[in-house]
Amino acid sequence: MKEIQDFTNECLKSGGMSQNTLKSYQCDLSKLENYVDSLGITEIGKVSEKVLKDHLGQLSEKGYSPATIARNIVSIKALFKYLVKNEIVAIDASENLIAPKVELPKANVLTRRQIEDLLDMPDARTAKGQRDSAMLELMYATGIKVSELIGIKISQLDMQIGSIACKNNKTERIIPFDKRTKAVLTRYLQDGRRHLITRTDEELLFINYQGEAMSRQGVWKLVKSYARQADIKVPITPEALRHSFAAHLVERGADIEAVQFMMGHVSPVSTNRYARENRDYIRDVYDRTH
Questions:
Q1: What values do phi and psi take at 166, rounded to 5?
Q2: Is 102 inside any structural domain?
Q3: For position 44, which CATH number holds?
Q4: Range(s) of the domain holding residue 260
Q5: How many structural domains is the chain composed of?
Q6: How far, in Å, CA of 176 to CA of 165, rounded?
Q7: CA 146 to CA 138: how far, in whole Å?
Q8: Is residue 32 domain-shared with residue 75, that is, in the same domain?
Q9: Nearest CA to 79 among 181, 182, 154, 5?
Q10: Least CB-packed of 126, 164, 201, 255 within 10 Å?
Q11: Strand 163-168 relative to strand 171-176: parallel, antiparallel, unpaired?
């Protein structure tokens, strides 16, 4: 339908949406469009609440997970919000759609000892080692996403007070980091980085051997490599450092809202799981030892 295409084009032009979100909208709304076409409906104004619910019911019957169906509802609601705002339809047919309850997967959290072992692996005598050390330290010290890490510019760092500014969807959050991370970053900035950059006006903080931006796959591989060197047996990805950052803060009594802000969570539900899992851990220790 033209209206669906117009909506996704508007999302693209706005520039305030990540590529992953845009792809999700396109994928989800393509499913909706195919279902509507199968019913012979050619006008968006004739897509009723019943049609939407039947579509979602069909997705469930096909074996789509509650998380995927919940995401489809988000996409559909975004579409109808656009349609109502632009007076293309008078009634929001998605208003009463309720997303199924989604159980968040258990966070992959490392112990403090495992974190220390991992952070000690890079060889600080080399430019690569200094870069890798700075990346690992910053991920654990701030809980930033890999997509944020590889896009950090020098201008986002405030080395005087020890913080990083992360922008996402037109919002900004300032995340502090500790003296240890500050020292590792300072060493990399003063020494290792100058051996990696190919031009003096390079803005990116982390650079590969080709003088280009690090890739997500590159970060994933180096984390895996250092985990093997540290003899960490549990599965580990860059996301584990992010989860460990949040879980260890909560474990030490950090305010949930503060952790939510630093993690960039829109909903407290995502952050609350760290508190819930910490309580489960304490209960397990109590049951085994008391």
A1: -110, 125
A2: no
A3: 1.10.150.130
A4: 112-289
A5: 2
A6: 9
A7: 11
A8: yes
A9: 5
A10: 201
A11: antiparallel
107, part of any domain: no
> How many residues belong to the chain?
290
Using alpha carbons, list the distances in angstroms from residue 104 to 101, 230, 272, 273, 274.
9, 29, 11, 8, 11
264 vs 257: CA distance, rounded Å: 10
Q: Are 71 and 135 found together in one domain?
A: no
pLDDT value for 71: 87
Check if the beta carbon of residue 207 is closer than 8 Å to that of residue 137.
no
Nearest 5 degrees, angle CA 215-CA 175-CA 121?
Answer: 50
Q: Are residues 135 and 62 in the same domain?
A: no
Q: Are residues 62 and 145 in the same domain?
A: no
- Measured distance CA(143)–CA(147) in Å, rounded: 12
Across the chain, mean pLDDT equals 83
Residue 234 DSSP class:
S
286 is catalytic: yes
One domain for residues 256 and 144: yes
Q: Is 216 a catalytic residue?
A: no
Whole-prediction pTM = 0.58
Reported as a single tens digit per residue, the pLDDT across 147-190 is: 889 999 999 999 998 888 887 655 677 888 889 999 999 999 99
Q: Which of 226, 242, 273, 274 is catalytic?
A: 242
Annotated catalytic residue, options 125, 199, 286, 288: 286
